[in-house]
Design goal:
Length: 281
Amino acid sequence: MQSTIAQALQDARHHIEDLEARLLLQCVLNVDAVYLAAYPDRNLNSRQQEAYRSLIAKRIRGEPVAYLVGEREFYGLTFKVTPAVLIPRPETELLVEIALSRIPNERVCRILDLGTGSGAIAITIAKLRPHAQVIAVDCSSEALTVARINAQNLGVSNVRMLSGDWFATLGPQQFDLIVSNPPYVAEGDPHLSEGDLRFEPIIALTAQEEGLAAIRHIVANSLHFMAPGGWLLLEHGYNQAPICRQLLAESDFRNIFTCPDLAGIPRVSGGQHYDRTRATS
């Protein structure tokens, strides 16, 4: 028996949230939200009904909507996502916002994004700062494939994707800004068995040393790749701001700060490279 758009949505609402039901149906029909509202009496054919039921069943099992529809909006841009990459989150937009505030519009700057995943951070920066030269690094070849597709889809040509473990394959380079949303969840954290985290790549979520191993590595090594006066910006967990600021201070960063996200949670910390040579000359 055929269902109309309105009937299909009504049935789905018994199992999943209304917004999710609409997003999944938009994906099946390859239409936008306006279409669903404008044509509630349009019939779904048998193939569309089966595809919709399949997506609803997967969502009921907990699979993230972003993976089911294959995309997620971030900073006003649409990014392809797959289970090979973390789903871009609104709180990470703060990291991009702070980075953009430190990148002049008309000057060539060299930017490094460590652990780029879908490329959301690097590509957004590159698109909004077209004079910047951005390098995005990830150890996952599958993630880099997604990131390259996103760069192409969004028409961004000033970002280069590199395979590597943090700084290992960079060679002698200096950057005006280094940015990273590294894995910072402690191994065994109970949140890993909840919500979308159950389906996201564990290598991009967790780190040893109570979630601090990647952050420690980045802070300890970034000065070797940073131009004098350059900035290091890091996203971190809700309780990691104090240790991040301590690590930055111990590595001789200056102008150290922490910014909260829209929920008031300390989310991004950073510091500026202190040029000892210039300071003592």
